[in-house]
Amino acid sequence: MIVLGLTGSIGMGKSTTAKMFADEGAAVYDADAAVHRLYAGRAVAPVETAFPGVTRDGRIDRGLLAEYVLGNPQAMSRLEAIVHPLVHEEELAFLKRAREARRRVAVLDIPLLLEKWVPGRVDAVCVVSASPEIQRKRVLDRSGMSEEKFNSILAKQLPDADKRRRAHFLIDTGRGTTVAQSAVRALMRTLSLMA
Q: Per-residue pLDDT tens for 85-100?
């Protein structure tokens, strides 16, 4: 089985591209979705202990948690020390299930894959990208997004040019879904031959 790391900066179309990989038969692990599940389950008690008052209705309120961690590197490190091991456990369980199901390609959709690089985690890296203008428009069109929040998120991510240089494969989403889908289909054929 080939394990492909899928990443890209905010607003580049990574979630849409991950769905395209799933539609082409890849097993896809969504790290953000894993965090959402954990914030409604196993992570609630340890996160609430570290950041009192962030729990609402038995789950972590991401807005309240953001008040603690945005702009506070020590708080962010504390949160990551709690959540990252739990996310990693879920990732390993996903890969085990994909191997047992004899999947040829498993995609790990991880936003900060390159920022939090772990050697040997993936066989290859695919970066999803678009022009800065398209990225900015996509992000600022989101509900609740501001220029300040966008810039804060970007500051935590490697520049797109750096990600592109580190990629084995690149999917350009700035030219439309048909072009991106065609690129995903071609990449899946290549990866299937390597598996």
A: 999 999 999 999 999 9
Q: Any known ligand binding at 17?
A: no
Q: Does 71 count as an annotated binding residue?
A: no
Is residue 19 part of an annotated ligand binding site?
no
Beta-carbon contacts of residue 90 (< 8 Å; ≥ 6 apart) = 29, 34, 37, 38
Measured CA to CA, the distance from residue 63 to residue 73 in angstroms comes to: 17
Q: Is 15 annotated as a binding residue?
A: yes
Q: Which residue type occupies 8?
A: G
Residue 12 is assigned to a ligand binding site: yes
The predicted structure's pLDDT at residue 96 = 98
Quick one: average pLDDT of 140-167? Answer: 89
Domains present along the chain, CATH in parentheses: 1-26+104-195 (3.40.50.300), 33-102 (no CATH)
Question: Is the pLDDT score of 122 beyond 90?
Answer: yes
Is 63 among the annotated ligand-binding positions? Answer: no
